[in-house]
Q: What sequence folds into this?
């Protein structure tokens, strides 16, 4: 994880939640045993632990998309990295667990920006599209994939919900894309059904926001729709994921 994204994740978690009261979410009703791996807090994650972090996060996101946002079908657009794939699979597994109908979930992996146009029809046949770009893929490539995806959604005037992974929302990709492409800016500025994931490691909370791209091109959290308390294992994995990898 590059330093810019690390800082963006931390700033996003703190600033987006500092002025908003948490009105939703349940506290655990039973006592949770301590995390036996808490002593590893200063060590970077290995690959398997990255997958574990995405399993915790993906399950919580999939549950929120299903229960809080009432999304019945979902396309996830991702890069081809194994870490993003594990997150997409976890989100999808939770979504499918709540809806066993046909054509409920599909993951669309993009290797290069041109792939977005090739997959445009497939990515827009469900209630929502989630942009999940992060993992081992370099930030400039993730940005290019996100921009290409949003360009296709804008061209088609896709009316379904759009969900942004924290690695897309926190670095303010939408602001940069809007500054470069007037058509995408106009499309996103008019949408009221956009949502984003943030993490507040200080309070140990995962949050789902309704978000907007304002007329001035700036991203904004409209309101917090859902928050989930992270247990120690999940939170420790997230904090360790922020350690600069050599």
A:
């Amino acid at each position: 994880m590059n330093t810019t994204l690390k800082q963006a994740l931390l700033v996003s978690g703190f600033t987006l939640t500092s002025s908003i009261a948490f009105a939703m979410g349940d506290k655990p009703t039973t006592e949770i045993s301590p995390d036996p791996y808490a002593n590893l807090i200063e060590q970077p994650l290995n690959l398997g632990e990255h997958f574990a972090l995405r399993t915790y996060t993906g399950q919580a996101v999939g549950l929120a998309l299903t229960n809080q946002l009432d999304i019945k079908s979902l396309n996830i657009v991702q890069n081809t990295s194994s870490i993003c794939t594990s997150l997409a699979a976890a989100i999808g597994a939770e979504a499918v667990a709540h809806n066993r109908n046909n054509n409920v979930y599909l993951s669309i992996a993009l290797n290069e920006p041109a792939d977005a146009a090739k997959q445009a029809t497939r990515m827009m046949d469900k209630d929502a599209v989630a942009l999940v770009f992060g993992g081992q893929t370099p930030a400039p490539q993730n940005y290019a994939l996100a921009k290409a995806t949003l360009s296709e959604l804008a061209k088609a005037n896709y009316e379904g919900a759009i969900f942004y992974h924290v690695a897309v929302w926190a670095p303010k990709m939408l602001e940069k894309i809007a500054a470069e492409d007037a058509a995408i800016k106009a499309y996103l500025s008019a949408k009221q059904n956009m949502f984003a994931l943030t993490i507040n490691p200080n309070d140990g909370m995962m949050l789902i926001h309704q978000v907007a791209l304002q007329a001035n091109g700036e991203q904004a959290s409209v309101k917090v729709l859902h928050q989930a308390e992270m247990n120690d294992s999940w939170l420790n994995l997230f904090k360790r994921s922020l350690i600069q990898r050599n």
Summary: DSSP finds ten helices and seven strands in the chain. Strands lie at 74-78, 105-109, 128-132, 161-164, 194-200, 205-213, 219-229.
